[in-house]
Amino acid sequence: MERLEYGNTGLEISRLCFGAGHLNKVCASHAEGGDLLRGAFDQGITFWDTAEGYGSQPHLGAALRGLERDQVVIQTKTGAKDYDGAYKSIERSLQEMGTDYIDVLLLHGVSSPEDLESREGALSAFLDAKSKGIIRVTGCSTHLFTGPVMDAVIDHPEIQVILATANKEGRMLDGGPLDRHLEYLQRAYDLGKGLSIMKVIAAGNIPESELEDWIRWGFELEIAHGINLGMSNRSEIDFDARIAREHGSQRLRRVA
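Above: the chain's sequence. Below: its structure in token form.
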């Protein structure tokens, strides 16, 4: 499984990221979700993405009980905007996952420059927690493309990581064309931001016969450090991991 540095964050991640957003819906218990995550870990998937709002953080906690904490990089999110709300969110995340630190914490779903500005209190809480070693890296996710919001998150000094929508047809991307969006992502990459992409298969709203092509497009986007794919069962883990391994091998051959 291909591993690389997450921008200039100092974190090393697997390029394939386990998107854990569905686990609360498809697993009968936290233990079942934990087993899926550990199965993914056994295939080299060491980068896990969740959010407080998904309800899946306890599944990650169950998985962590069978692993050394530093073997995985966990990225989670909060929709809190003010200082107190964000700090309480951090404490809940730590408790639900049974860990004493979070690798990457994101402001969830930033939609405009004004929205980002309204969350400065939350960012202050992030930074206080970071100073105590509770958080290692701060950033945001954004589902939209508009020039102003991309400029705002790229230029913000405390946004070290960006999780953004990107797929081969630009679906689920409101506000501008895919080619222009990719120019913004390139700028973020060039500045050393950690960059992950989501909605790579347009939330599964494509024919099953096309899934592999869409996923391969994500891995071929060289500026994306992480390819965030929602996985709900072992067959999906096997499918995604195979593509990730094949792409990683091809990339190594090109470099050699």
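The chain has a mean pLDDT of 92.
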